[in-house]
Amino acid sequence: MESQKYLQRIEDNKSLILDAERYIWKNPETGFKEWKTHSYLKDAFEKLGLTTHSFDRIPASVAIQSAENGQDRFFEKIPGFYVDFDTGRPGPRIAVFGEMDALIIPNHPECDSQTGAVHSCGHHAQCAALLGVAIGLTAPNALDGLSGSIRLIAVPAEEGIEIDFRNSLQKEGVIRYHHGKKELIWRGLMDDVDLAFMIHTVSGDKLTCGTGSNGCIVKKFTFIGRSAHAAEPEEGTNALYAANLAISAANALRETFVEKDTIRFHPIITCGGTSVNAIPDCVTVESYVRGAELNTYLEINKKINRAFAASAASIGCRLRINDLCGSSPRHNNKMLTSVFADAALPILGNDRIDMNRPWGTACSDFGDISHIMPASHLFIGGAAGMAHGSDYYIANPELSCVTSAKIQVSAVVSLLENGAEKAKTIVTENPPLFASVREFLSVLDKVDSNHEAVFYHKNGDVTLSLETK
Ligand SMILES: [Zn+2]
Ligand SMILES: [Zn+2]
After folding, report:
1. Whole-angstrom distance, CA of residue 315 vs CA of residue 384
2. Ligand nearest, relative to CA of residue 387
3. 123-137 and 35-47 are packed helices; what angle lies between their axes, rounded to 10 degrees?
4. Of 157, 191, 382, 416, which is least surrounded by CB within 10 A?
């Protein structure tokens, strides 16, 4: 592998990368609001002489779904953009992601004083590293000897937060999906991409990867009872007790969960009543159902919905179940991951590479990408504190951003040199889990539902509706 010229250029320009890390850390923005981040990065990419493309106009040549009628596709504006590097020689296209969104952690000492936003998941370091990848790929004669192409994508909204805000964006027709990567899949931006990767920041000093991690369904239950004076509870229908029963019923189901499915159900009561001297008539419970395999956790989800509906019925409450397809399980591609292990070896040394991490139970919308093409989501050290916590920060930006960029460029070169031999082999030997993007999205769409779950009939019968659509 001849990657020295790329690495040298990254090293020579690392102040640009480290500046980006500082700027985005100081200007944290949550999903679908990352406009300052967008502007800063767009400007930095364009200063390298690159042409950036927003996501509101997807050329027919990019979105294969549109190619039949030769029409470009137009969408509402969202933050983020992509840049294509085309070698001019045929071969697979590799997508590289940098996530732009922050979290809301109001007690983090460096959070935005107005919004509480802070990069407690280190996505700003990914953005800086993505700029580093662009710097590497703009080295003199950078694309000589490579085949295929590279798409760098600054992507919004990985974290599944601010549900009401995203619901409103959906209602306004701005977005179709709550998560950025799924939105880009839907917009057609991944139609002509063959494999994908990204490196997320984590604590420690290693490059790591495992087999993958859970997917999830995002859930909201609304129990509706009847309010009454707390001293005359016989006049009311207690929605809080229905919710308590429901959580207990779901807990009783846990022994039916099989360990290999790594199911996680972690409900919280987000509204448990409003007045201590009134019977609660509206109680909301939110949770995810997480699991390793989509069809399995869909079945578990049905069981949980049944437990909740039956519990509501036992008290005489109505129940509304709102299920939203979260992230799909993430399946890291072994062959692609091993390319990273080889690429990182001269940079980090063997002791700082661990590609045998166990299956993870957290979720990422990168899982959606891994369902439609070979893909790997790796982690690199450099962070300190607890991810999503109030003490998180990037302690070693050189590692999280500069070294990360070097590893990513080295892997890209390895994949696309020699006629893109390695990339072609990975694509050929790893057919995606879904044959087409549309088929994949249609399966996910079946998860989304918002329906009444308990019906009381005049003759006294009660029926439960567990329909997910
Ligand atoms: Zn996160
Ligand atoms: Zn993250």
Report:
1. 48
2. 1
3. 20
4. 191
- CATH top-level class for 215-327+444-464? alpha beta
Residues recorded for the chain: 469
Which residue in 230, 236, 169, 178 sits closest to 368, CA to CA? 178
Q: Where are the alpha helices (DSSP H) in 263-333?
A: 294-315
Residues 373-423 pLDDT 10s: 999 999 999 999 999 999 999 999 999 999 999 999 999 999 999 999 999
Q: Where does the pLDDT of residue 310 fall: very low under 50, low under 70, confident under 90, or very high at 90 and above? A: very high
* CA–centroid distance, residue 253 to ligand 2 (Å): 30
Residues 6+ apart with CB under 8 A from 144: none
CATH class of the domain at 4-211+330-433? alpha beta
Residues 248-260 have pLDDT tens digits of 999 999 999 999 9
Asked whether residue 31 carries a pLDDT value surpassing 80, the answer given is yes
> Is a pLDDT exceeding 70 seen at residue 75?
yes
Delimiting residues of CATH 3.40.630.10 domain(s) in the chain: 4-211+330-433
In whole angstroms, how far apart are CA 203 and each of 264, 359, 433? 24, 18, 31
The token duo for 286 is 């939110």
Domain with CATH 3.30.70.360 in the chain: 215-327+444-464
Kindly give the distance from the C-alpha atom of residue 248 to the centroid of ligand 1, in angstroms, as a whole number. Answer: 29
3-state SS assignment for residue 135: helix
Mean pLDDT of 131-152: 97
What pLDDT, in 10s, does the model give residues 139-148? 999 999 999 9
Smallest Cα–Cα separation from 291: which of 271, 272, 264, 309?
Answer: 264
What is the whole-number distance in angstroms between the Cα of residue 159 and the centre of ligand 2?
7
Average pLDDT on 139-158 reads: 97
Interstrand relation of 330-331 and 318-325 (parallel, antiparallel or unpaired): unpaired
Q: For the chain, what is the total number of helices (H) and then of strands (E)?
A: 14, 23
92 and 423 Cβ atoms separated by less than 8 Å: yes
Calculate how far, in angstroms, residue 181's C-alpha sits from the geometric centre of ligand 1.
14
**Distance (Å, whole) CA 383 – CA 437:** 34
